[in-house]
Amino acid sequence: MKTVTLNNGVEIPILGFGTFQITDPEQAETAVQEAIKAGYRHIDTAQSYMNEEAVGRGLAKSGVARKELFITTKIWVENASYDGVLASFERSLKRLDLDYVDLLLIHQPYGDIYGAWRAMEALQEQGKIRAIGISNFAVDRAVDLAVFNTVTPQVNQIEINPFQQQTANIAALKAEGIMPEAWAPFAEGKNDIFHNPTLVKIGGKYNKSVAQVITRWLVEQEVIVLAKSVQLGRMQENLDVFDFELTDEDKKEITMLNEGESQFFSHADPEMIRWMASRTMHEFETIKKLRISLYN
């Protein structure tokens, strides 16, 4: 697996397995085991995904040594404060059944992010976290956090896909020493992305799927990619992207797909900020139970 090196020297696998929306405990546990079986060594979860316990069981049952795995979790808005990070991180460690995590992120750019960051710096100093970072931060807010604190964020996990390419922001983050990490690289199927004529045509040249073309496009930009599937075949396919290269013409055609806006929502929207500020872990747990009851 190709790795990239963060600004503190920690190496992270460039391809990661995302667990967002895998809320059924058995499915999440199995998906993590299958992902590791397929070859993933980088697993991403979050407090708000409500699956840390299941992810932890999947890790434990994978048979792969802890030191070979790279595990990420994230601090939810409700816990974004100095004391909130310290307390909630310990709960995350317990749920994951781990002694440390490889990467801890502030999930959203809201709340007492300065207090949260100072707590994360302390935990990193103690060896409980190997790398610390942020998620969904605009470049100016990422720089603001960096220049007024001791540690520059090692990662910023943001939406990057062919319809929201964020080219300038990727360059700006890298200039600050912050590694960009792409969530929703396939835009969760929006705009019928898996049948997009441009991406299908490019894939046909190399006998690759649209998902593989998108993943390769990001890898060639040295962007960390998080992909999710609960199917072993798709997991294996999403990893099989190191035996071809895109041409400059391919990349130009992909550039033409850019719409320059989120395919989901704006993190600068006041209503969205209020909505996230009002969402508690208790509510996420209630939603999780409702989803499980609907599908079982």
TrEMBL record:
Highest taxon of the lineage: Bacteria
Where do transmembrane segments lie in this chain?
A: none
SUPFAM superfamilies xrefs: NAD(P)-linked oxidoreductase
Q: Which Gene3D superfamilies match?
A: NADP-dependent oxidoreductase domain (3.20.20.100)
Residues carrying the site annotation Lowers pKa of active site Tyr: K74
For the ligand (substrate), the binding residues are H107
Could you list this entry's UniProt keywords, alphabetically sorted: NADP, Oxidoreductase
Coiled-coil residues are: none
The UniProt record lists the NADP-dependent oxidoreductase domain at 15-258
Q: Which Pfam families match?
A: Aldo_ket_red
InterPro entries registered for this protein in UniProt: AKR, Aldo/ket_reductase_CS, NAD(P)_OxRdtase_dom_sf, NADP_OxRdtase_dom
**What start and end residues bound the annotated signal peptide?**
none
UniProt record similarity statement: Belongs to the aldo/keto reductase family.
> Do you know which PANTHER family this protein is assigned to?
2,5-DIKETO-D-GLUCONIC ACID REDUCTASE (PTHR43827), NADP-DEPENDENT OXIDOREDUCTASE DOMAIN-CONTAINING PROTEIN (PTHR43827:SF3)
From the Swiss-Prot or TrEMBL record, give the protein name. Putative oxidoreductase
